[in-house]
Amino acid sequence: VQLVESGGGLVQPGGSLTLSCAASGFTFSSYVMTWHRQAPGKEREFVATIASAGSSINYSNSVKGRFTISRDNAKNTVYLQMNSLKPDDTAVYYCNVYRRGHDYWGQGTQVTVSS
Fold it and tell me: In terms of Cα–Cα distance, which of 38, 42, 36, 39 is closest to 21?
């Protein structure tokens, strides 16, 4: 299993970014995919999750209405569109899959929201 995040960077408050997570090594279309984030000095926290066919989606209260999770099963990729970014969104963002009793994580991509 390999998960590779990309798309992070430095953005001003109110700006937007789209993160991508390219997956390989498993049948991507059969699994729930999740985004988490970890800010400096804080625990890793749940951000959003999407069911295998994209029919069920959930968000943390802190990002609901600003972030959109989506997936392209033909490209084995899950996305996180982030709008109206705030300094509190600054974190390393990770994608995750829980498969056969194991949690798999990518290396993360840094998002910094600052003026």
Answer: 36
String of DSSP letters for 60-101: -TTTTTTEEEEEETTTTEEEEEE-S--GGG-EEEEEEEEETT
Helix (H, G, I), strand (E, B) or coil at 28: helix
Tell me the C-alpha distance between 45 and 38, whole Å.
6
* Amino acid at position 31, single letter: Y
Structure tokens, 114: 């600052």
* Amino acid identity, position 2: Q
Q: Is the dihedral of CA 50, 56, 60, 61 positive or negative?
A: positive
Residue 6, Cα to own-chain centre: how many angstroms? 10
pLDDT (tens, 9 = 90+) of the chain, 115 residues, equals 999 999 999 999 999 999 999 999 999 999 999 999 999 999 999 999 999 998 899 999 999 999 999 999 999 999 999 999 999 999 999 999 999 999 999 999 999 999 9
